[in-house]
Write the structure tokens for this entry.
Amino acid sequence: MVCDGTFIYKRGPTGDKRVPTNHKRRPTSHKRACRGDKGRNTRDKRLPVGSRRGFTYNQNTFRSIVVRRILWVCPSRRFKPAFGEEKPLPRTTIWAFISAVTKSKMEIRTVNATRYVTPLREGGSLPAIVEADDDGTYVLKFHGAGQGPRVLISELLSGEIARFLGLPVPEIVFMHLDPVLGRNEPDSEIRELIKKSAGLNLALDYLPGSISYDPLITRPVVDVPQLASCVVWLDALTTNIDRTARNTNMLIWHKHLYLIDHGASLYFHHTWDDYLNKSRQRFAPIKDHVLLPLANEIAAADELFTPLLTRDTLNEIAALLPDDWLGDVPLFTSHDEHRAAYVEYLCRRLQSPRDWVEEALNARKLLV
């Protein structure tokens, strides 16, 4: 690069390019989208979640971004104090900062489905790709599917717990579905499913161009300190039986790992008999977890995450559950009592001693 006072000459493969010295680079589409500018690049599908639709980051997305960029990056760096040896940044201090910055009521956006694009045949609940009135594209999960709204409850609770802990999860939104969208659908099964699912459903941000995680390509996991251990800890806590080598339920998008499909977690709520005693049980299926061979810091993840999931935090997450999905259990007399049962289950599961953490540690010892 050469400057003669008036122009800057940049060397390139096709020759020198002359640029005026007072030339100001046009803001990228990411910056324009974040500040709400309108333009053809605002809906650029290559942009990160939350920035491509021209809206301000909501609280859950902001917390997830802050945690991923601070909690996972800063501890791997070192700072040099005035006296003594160099030490890694303490995670407790970082979390105190994060909690102070992002402390406010959790909320989930609500959008309206505008177009049914195509079904996804992989899942048992027959999810679909749909477009919404915020110009976004989502993977919609129907409350009228065979497994009922309890799958959506598992998806919402486990997904928001993961987001609160800073784990990478696509944005979760509530989606209103009008049964009129299915009137031109040639498949009678899908048409009936849309009709049964009229009202409030759950959707995840669609990640275009993403691919399923391959256990043979571990770089997206090992590049992030403790990520594998934290995912294993989360799935052991929420009893997620559906993250195996056969079905990883993880996506790679722009070289980053994303956790999806938590509908198989918290399976205790399919039968509420003796659910408080079930909360203290071990989780034997953790031995089949696809990331268990890479999870060499499960104890550290347990020490980090357990103090963060307080009863108040879990109450705040459970409060996100809509009334339409509750009230089908005769054991509970009100929707609030139903929500409190989920909180009590998770709180008891987090109490010491946590046999499910020991089960995960023992399962990994058998692998290595």
Residues 6-10, 21-59, 72-90, 92-104 have pLDDT under 50 and may be disordered. The first helix runs from residue 29 to 34.
